[in-house]
Amino acid sequence: MSQELTEDQVELKETCSKCLVEKNISVFKKNRKVCLTCSSIYHSNYYQENKDHIIQQNHDYYVNTIDERKKYHKNYYYERKDQIKIKNKLKRLNLS
Fold this sequence. Notes:
Layout lengths: L12 E3 L6 E3 L11 H14 L1 H14 L1 H14 L1 H12 L4
Antiparallel strand pairs: 1-2
């Protein structure tokens, strides 16, 4: 009598290219060779080393796209004006 293994019973392993430890495949992102732990450490270190630059980039992006965002939100409101009014009225009456 042969027993077939289900997917839950089979443990797929892969070796992290950063720490060189064999780990369960569930701790890797799809199609990546670095485990989530090493990836997290890398990104944390990268942010700390480049914090000022990243903050400046985000600020510049915010400033440069503010008109586009205002335009988008205005259009969004006017396209869904009736739905938004009904939803807000229900919130005020605590019926949502």
